[in-house]
Every structure is written in structure tokens, then in C-alpha cells.
Amino acid sequence: MVTKVQPIDEVKDPVQQNSTELNNPQMPLIIGGLIVGAILMIYLMVTQNIVQPLLLVIGLLLGYTLFHARFGFTSAFRRLMSVGNGKALRSHMLMLAVAVTLFAPILAFGYSFFGGDVAGYVAPVGVSLFVGAFMFGIGMQLGGGCASGTLYAVGGGRTVMFVTLLFFIIGSTIGAYHLPFWTQELPAFEPISLATSTGLGYGGAWILSIALFGLISWLTLVVEKKKKAPKMASVPSTTGWKRLLRGSWPLFAAAIALAVLNAITLMTRGAPWGVTSAFALWGSKVAQFLGNDVASWGYWQSANAAVLESSIFMDSTTVLNLGVILGAFLASAAGGLFKFTKINSKNVAAAVIGGLMLGYGARLAFGCNIGAYFGGIASFSLHGYIWGILALAGTFVALYLRPLFGLSVPKSKDSFC
Asked: What is the pTM of this model?
């Protein structure tokens, strides 16, 4: 029996599986999504500063891009570790190459649209990072998606991903509660930047980064040739100018778009794109509402204290996340692909366990595939590279766990998305 892998981060629904063409646009859903987006935009414009409405638009574009290109991280890692197909990982390298090229002058000169401070994601390297990234690697293969993949899968209607998201939030909240132990009681080095900690400067760090991306891309080609990796199957698409609105987009186009949008995010809010800090915030607010003394947690001390006491709509990561979900929803409806999918006890169990590991791992590792891997490497942080290696190791372990939950593992003879 031939098992086919789902597309990126397993968001493909039955309509997508059985057709290589898009359906008619789901106009009632599109109109409803636009109304919701307009209401949220007006609310943010009235109650928040100009940054929040702009971030909602950026998030919407991120979600639209992710869905139309089926661009993800979970399946890219799984494809490489299972059958040796590195096409998606090479798109990561292109994305990162464009990102470091844009981030370097922004970080070096402090460019910002609104004159505030600009800082990348540079985090410590220690036990917390190693354990958290490894857990995240397992979690995303069981939960069916990474951080960005979970958001856009929810926007696309994949029902089980609502379960993953719920337990992602719970795991992130528990991780926030436990974080002081992992960061203060266990060994760790200070944050290491390839630009500022090594004497290379941003120019030298950029050259080194481009060389590393080229080396990794070459290694994936070597692995593909050695394993005779199957090619990626096509996904539902259209032609002409309609492809811009209805998809699917080439991976290389999405890689460039995501890098540009991340740089715009950096210049808009002073920090790169992130996802999971909002999950810790949402869960902590619920815990606080239920009577827990969340403000006493080490995670919510100092600078974070004001975030906990403020409206979630003041949190820029929350606004970005809402935009990603809405953008993916509009993209799926534009392609006529939005449809809630069936779930069963096994994939719910995988979603629960995977979601908990995703959330907890993200907190320990100072971020997820977006904040630590994408944002960290784009910010020239060593921890971003280590995150990627450990997440790949977690993916390898998860290949042996997925069948226990009825989840497929690609075979060398398969043609897959």
C-alpha cells in the first residue's frame, strides 16, 4: 500500500487530495472573512497605535502566502529525514538568504519605520535550547504542524489542528511557568551573535551565513541523489493572474515573500516575526482569570509584566497571529478549499501530545520555527542554527512514533506533496 505524505504541515483537506485544480471561490466565506478583517482593523485603528493595524495587514499577507505556497517547516524536515527530498529545505535556505540580506543593514543601522529601537532574536545556548528544540521537533511531527503551520492550518479548516492549537497554548503556558528553572538552574552560554560576538560584523556574518546556506543546499542535493528521493507532487493551482489570488505559488516565490515580510515586520515593530509568545500570553491570561497568581511567575517579571496586564490587542504577536489565521482562511476560501475535516481518536491523541510538546519546547528553546529558526538565523544568532539541528533530530525520532498514532511516514517509492 502506497502512503502519501500530506502537504506542508499536513493541512491538505480531501478536496485538495483528490484534485490538482482549484474549486470555485467560496464567496460567502470570503465576504465573511473580509467583514471580520475590516471590523478588527477598525477596532485596532481606534484603540491602538498605528503599528497594530499595520501588523494585522502583514499577518494577513503572511497567512495568505503560507497557505498558497503550502510553505512549511514540519513537512520539509520530515521529507528530508524520511526519504531525502530536500526541495522544501532548499526553499528555507533561499528564504534565510534573502532574510539575512535584508536584516543586516536594518540591525546594523537601526532602521525603523517609526524611530524605535530595533533588535533581532539572539538567545542563549544551553540545556534549555537543546531540550526545547528537540521536543519541538517531535511535537510538530505528532501535532501535524509547526507554529506557523498550526495557525494557517486552523485558518484552512483542518479540524484536528484546533486541538493542536489548544494544547500548544497549554504547553506554552506550562513552559512559561517552568522557564526560570531551565534558564537559571541549568548551564547555558550567553547569547552568541555571528555579527557582534565574533568580530565579523554584519558584513562578515552575512558572507558566512550565505556560505552556510549554500553548503546546506548542496548537502541536500547530495542526499537526494544518494537516496534517489521521490519528487514532490503538484498541489491545486490555477493559471495567469488568477494564480496570484488563488494559488498555488512556487516555493521560491513564497520564500522571498516571507523574508521580505519578516524584514518589514522588523522595521514596523522593532523585532522579527514571532508566534508562540502570544500563546504563552493567552494561556497565562486564562490561568490568571481562573485565580492563579501568574504575575509572580519569573517569566512575567520585569519587561513582560506590562504585557500580561494589558489587552491582548496591544500585543503585536497576537495581532500577527490573528492576521495569519485570517489570511489563510481567505486564501483557502479563494481557492474553494475551505472545509472542516474529520478527526479520529488517534489523531486527536497525537494532536494533544504534539501540541503540549510544541508549546513547552518553544518556551524552553526561546522560540519556535519562526522565532528561533527563521528569526534567529536571520538575526545572525547561533541559537537559530542549533535549533534547526535539534529539531531535525526530533523529527527523526518522531518518524518512529507517528505510526503509533496512525500517521503516515513517507516511503522512498512515494510521490508526495
From this structure: 0.91
